[in-house]
Amino acid sequence: MLDVCLLGSGGMMPLPYRWLTALMTRFNGSSLLIDCGEGTQIAIKEKGWSFKPIDVICFTHFHGDHISGLPGLLLTMGNADRREPLTLIGPKGLERVVNALRVIAPELPFPIIFREIEGAEQTFALNGYRLKAFRVNHNVVCYGYTMEIDRAGKFDVERARAQGIEQKYWSILQKGETVETAEGRLTPDMVLGPARKGIKLTYTTDTRPTNSIRENAKGADLFICEGMYGEKEKASKAVEYKHMTFYEAAQIAKDAQVKEMWLTHYSPSLTRPEEYMDEVRRIFPAAKAGKDRMSTELTFS
Ligand SMILES: [Zn+2]
Ligand SMILES: [Zn+2]
């Protein structure tokens, strides 16, 4: 099961009723954060989730509304006496940018591991899930992220018995591990059926529509996408500033055949995103206007 929370839904600046866009997930005792603008640590507090299990923080890009909250969060994690390493993932230049911000948070009791993304896409194997970064199209280098949790095939008791595999090895094989016995090696494929559908979450913000988003969000259980503008007359602004309108996001959701889409990263001038949602749902019915702390649990079907 994957817990997902859209901590904030604003773009550019935090507002009294809307924190900056950031996503937090919890899986198997480990938490991941994507983006950390000003106030993100307050948004985490408001949600009531713990800082402690955050072991990965990813950045889409280095605009202030996506990273300026990092030094404060690092200090909070340090004050909680964290000792375990923290992995940071982001575009090239990550270590330089973070170390510049860390002039005001120089002494931390935990090590930081930097993983700078190379090229158009890169996949990281993390704590029981895969995280793929893929290049999008903003006015600086920017990446979207897809998180996938695989699900192994069903254990086939008949096959295990037919091959005379002892019951004490079943649970090990079911976990996907190999067993060496006196009679030879036992592998999971000897007892597991074809892989079943896992969980897929895609998050992308600060970008024009791209094929990379359509491909990487394909069939996602949840697609969280920027929608900077709801007003039809701001379509040219979206092109100029390399953002998206609600309708462009909905078209991607439709093309990628995702199960559900949440909009986020609203322009500060956009006070009531709901007003535009009827029109958005005409393009893609399973669309929701993201709100701060909007949450869901994604489970294996
Ligand atoms: Zn932004
Ligand atoms: Zn930006």
TrEMBL record:
UniProt KW Protein biosynthesis keyword: no
Q: Spell out the reaction equation it catalyses.
A: Endonucleolytic cleavage of RNA, removing extra 3' nucleotides from tRNA precursor, generating 3' termini of tRNAs. A 3'-hydroxy group is left at the tRNA terminus and a 5'-phosphoryl group is left at the trailer molecule
Q: Which Pfam families match?
A: Anti-Pycsar_Apyc1, Lactamase_B_2
Cofactor note from UniProt? Binds 2 Zn(2+) ions.
This entry's Enzyme Commission designation comes to 3.1.26.11
Q: Which domain of life is it from?
A: Bacteria
Q: Which residues bind Zn(2+) 2?
A: 65-66, 206, 265
Q: Which residues participate in Zn(2+) 1 binding? A: 61, 63, 138, 206
Q: Does the keyword Nuclease apply?
A: yes
Cofactor(s) needed for function = Zn(2+)
Q: Which residues form the active site?
A: 65
Cross-referenced InterPro entries:
Metallo-B-lactamas, RibonucZ/Hydroxyglut_hydro, RNase_Z/BN
Extract one GO molecular function annotation from the record. Answer: 3'-tRNA processing endoribonuclease activity
Query: What SUPFAM superfamilies does its record include?
Result: Metallo-hydrolase/oxidoreductase
UniProtKB keywords: Endonuclease, Hydrolase, Metal-binding, Nuclease, tRNA processing, Zinc
Q: Tell me the ranges covered by the Metallo-beta-lactamase domain, including all copies.
A: 196-266
Subunit = Homodimer.
Q: Which HAMAP family does the entry mention?
A: RNase_Z_BN (MF_01818)
What the protein does comes down to: Zinc phosphodiesterase, which displays some tRNA 3'-processing endonuclease activity. Probably involved in tRNA maturation, by removing a 3'-trailer from precursor tRNA.
By sequence similarity, the record places it as follows:
Belongs to the RNase Z family.
The name of this protein is Ribonuclease Z
Source lineage: Bacteria, Bacillati, Bacillota, Clostridia, Lachnospirales
Please name the gene that encodes this protein. Answer: rnz
